[in-house]
Amino acid sequence: MSGEGLLINVGEGTCGIAAGAPEVTELLKKRFPDAKFTAVGCVGMCHQEVMVDITNADGKTYQWGNVNKKNLPKIVRFHRGEADLPEQLLIKSTDAPDTEKSQYLLKQTRIVLRNVGQLNPTSMSQFQERGGYTGIEKVLKGGMSPEDVIAEVKIANIRGRGGAGFPAAIKWGFARGAPGKVKYLVCNGDEGDPGAFMDRSLLEGDPHSVVEGMLIAAYAIGASKGYAYIRAEYPLAVEYFGKAMDDARKAGYLGNNILGSDFSFDIKIKEGAGAFVCGEETALLASIEGERGMPRIRPPFPAIKGVFNSPTIINNVETLANMPWIINNGGQAYADLGTEKSNGTKVFALAGTIKRGGLVEVPMGVTIRHVLEDIGGGSPTGRPLKAVQLGGPSGGCIPESMFDTLVDYDAIDATGAIMGSGGMVVMDSKSCMVDLARYFLEFTQLESCGKCTFCRIGTLRMKELLTKICEGEGTMEDIATLEELAPSIKQASLCGLGQTAPNPVQTTLEYFRDEYIAHVKDHRCPGGVCKGLITHTIIQKDCTGCSICERYCPVDAIEGELKKPDTWVIDQQACINCGMCVEVCNPDAILAA
Amino acid sequence: MSNASLEATVDPSEVQGWINNLGTEPSAAVPLLQAVQRAFGYLPRKAMDLIIENTEINASQLFGVATFYAQFRLDPVGRNLIKVCHGTACHVQGADRLNTSLRHVLGMKDEEEDTASNGSYTVEDVACIGCCSLAPVMLIGEQAYPNLKGADAQKHLVKHAKTVGEILPGKDADKEAK
Ligand SMILES: Cc1cc2nc3c(=O)[nH]c(=O)nc-3n(C[C@H](O)[C@H](O)[C@H](O)COP(=O)(O)O)c2cc1C
Ligand code: FES
User: Fold this and answer.
1) pTM
2) In a mutational test of the pocket of ligand 1, which residue from A153, A280, A294, A298 has the highest number of ligand atoms less than 8 Å from its CB?
């Protein structure tokens, strides 16, 4: 069987590629040379990568997960009719749509992610088959005025998904009313939160929806020029978004007199260059102008005086990708989802110690627990979950006891964390909250642009104190100093970076104070993470004497005789507590405590 | 350790080509530096001088920008570039061990050192490459390696070195290869 009549979709987003999708595709093409292949974006089931959808000639579809070159032959034989269905690789099929694995998607409400993983991101025709560009057509051909568009978005009550949560319609209204011949619309695809990838998957998996969203926004505010500011680390997003722009231009959706109207708009891509602060809107503008990405004092707000001194609206990728749906389905349908003040859906990027990591889109108003446990499947390690970090370096840590908090801007703010852009990093009991705070402060300190003294020096002081505590040298006074510094840094910083940098410290101090105290008073790291406070020892009764730890120890601190467990020891003087040995030890015979 | 052998030779006409394409106004600074870095892996002084001479961008702006953004580097890179993700998801899942392990087989002892003494590999820390659910992750060149333990990083590197014909200066590299 040559594969004639088969339709094969392979998820080839960044994560699919990382998991080995190109190799799987190549092998499939050898087995089924006559099948029709489509490389689709990432559907967001990262825990199931590599994912392959195969539709048989009879129209039945099978979705396979965790495909690799070893188990691929089982799938091939099944589609050739030579073997039974390999149950353990199946996510779902036409005959069995409702499986345990497919719950991950079935429990989501996909509006923004409506197309990711469903189409080839470089195909204009596939996008149009799925209703692409009908939103902007409705606007331009259906006689909607810019004010009508703003009114619809106002009904939807969508708040900015980039982190600050400012209502999109109100912002658009400012720019609409601002005087200026040329206005700009900027799509913020900087996705600075390390540990988040919602915007990547959209730019990469459904770039046309972002282009269409930009068109709608530009029309509403009267912008003729646009920039898409995309993070440097996302080469595939830059490539696919660029392709989408070119195709849109050819089809008459970008350029002069779009669809025969008097609305003209075009977009340029600006690649970021690796600065977190450039996600902040005024720093982003400075960066587009070719300067160091230093935030500027507001007012004047960018909506009045932005890039090249012209009125400018900056919107996040996800905010914009919602717009075509809102125009097509009406603002009310969007507003019907969610809570009173947080409407619509939110996409989260689930990562860390979680069974089913990936992209999750849920209506606002569900609980965090629902996202982590019902959809994410909870802890994969057998150890209980301890906390989730929301909002990255600007956000905070929510303890397990508060997982019933609603996904709602105000409810999450009340915990001291923020909704943020959607990064959710989950941690189990083998993580250290002091180390996490130290990690974030090291990050913000490096990323501080240096303009404000409190942000520049204050974050450095906090980082030093946290490092000291992690090394077991901290005092109770240091904790008090951290608590004193936090509000001062927040108050005396110009932009959101400094204003939020202390959040991870404040929330961990509030919810995990006992861990700080264990570090200071007992010189103990309860999570077994902080190198200065742990030692590694071999539990000889569990050891098999296989010597693998010796092989990987970078400092030759482990010695013993082959197959003689009672001879194996770690030289504590030489050991750097890197933990390499723990990872490679099969019988779990090395203790870090 | 001198990496003089890694210095790039800059062809002025190539730099002029980028300037012609990307423009001479101040807002072209970042794209120009990106073009240079894409070609050489770093920003050779000669290329910087050419940009300053042939555009409206002055030295203070250009170096200001080059030193502000994490993407840019002023020192040459090794023949192969390894990027280790240190985003939150990768950090909490042990990204530090990837560095320990890689640096070990690359024989990099000095903390400041990021390139192996024979110029084979440079190890760079980056913030999130967007595969957080597959953490920890590293890239060798363009190829991403997901779900790594410290030891895996080492194995992939040893394999890679074999395919591209590089020698790993770390002392256990050959032991591992067996
Ligand atoms: C330090 C800092 C980093 C930020 N990073 C991002 C980012 O990566 N992406 C983003 O969309 N917004 C980011 N923001 C928020 C933007 O300033 C801005 O509020 C947002 O892009 C507006 O779009 P929205 O209204 O659609 O959310 C950041 C803010 C700060 C203070
Ligand atoms: S945190 Fe490493 S890929 Fe995102």
Assistant:
1) 0.95
2) A280
